[in-house]
From TrEMBL:
N-acetyltransferase domain location: 15-163
Top-rank lineage group of the source organism: Bacteria
Pfam families (alphabetical): Acetyltransf_10 (PF13673)
PANTHER family to which the protein is assigned, alphabetical: L-AMINO ACID N-ACETYLTRANSFERASE
PROSITE patterns listed in its UniProt record: GNAT
Protein name in UniProt: GNAT family N-acetyltransferase
Organism: Flavivirga algicola
InterPro entries xrefs: Acyl_CoA_acyltransferase, GNAT_dom, MshD_Acetyltransferase
Amino acid sequence: MTDIIVANTMHYYSQIARLADVIWREHYIPIIGKAQVDYMLDKYQSETAIEKQIAEGYEYFMMTYKNIPVGYISIKKEFESLFLSKIYILSSYRGKGVGKTTMSFIEKKARNYQLKNIRLTVNIHNTNSIKAYETLGFVKIGSLVTDIGHGFVMDDYEMEKTI
């Protein structure tokens, strides 16, 4: 039921940007506020931003459920880790196995790249996601505060899963 598609054209970038707009506004406005969400959507999730990230070595994939676009991921191969930059699923499709299928896909990618672990960052106030990652075997390995401009910071935990 869940398919994972390589997102490598402007058509897919546009679909991902629309998904991001819905998912981020619902999920992150209560955590970081509307102004930062607006800024981050433009800076990191616009079609242009996605195209730039792909040129820098990130891979984007879109998840579909019964042929409906429901989420996306972005990964990047690093020296020993697969960096899971983004994993987002529409709230109405959570609990349908999309996340589980996607995490299996990500682990398979890491193994195919012969990497030792999967690494991600998550906002320190994003408690539900932190719990979900811990359930999947991720552990906190540190904290990161990143200045992203315009007076905004990302206040994250770095988490890692050995594979």
